[in-house]
Please model this.
Amino acid sequence: IYAVKDVLERGKASVGDTLAFPLHWSPKGQPQASSPIIRIASATSYAHVGPFKLLGPSPNGKQGGTIESQDVIAVFGRGAYVSPALAATLTPGALVAFNAYLTNMPSAFALPPLDGANVVVVSRAMMVD
Model:
């Protein structure tokens, strides 16, 4: 898939990153990435940082949350979902660094944090398209 340099730059893409973007066909019939392009996961670090927000309890009484990354919200209209098990370990308002992956499931989950030094790190979070 071809991506124009300025599209990659606007999406803050680096070599090895996992990206999500709309796909279109060029006049030559080739697949091409369109804006908005977003880094889903970084090959060398974390693609997103945002404050953790606790959600209300679900019908089964469990309480999940979201990581309110502005880049994620700008593209997907909402933050990355955090499972109730992980939400119970996080402090509302704490900054969380994370990589993400997409799914077409109606719910999404983040994995347990890897490092709680200065910024809580979640290895992966899932966003629903």
Notes: The longest strand covers residues 48-57. Residues 27 and 64 are 45 Å apart (CA to CA).
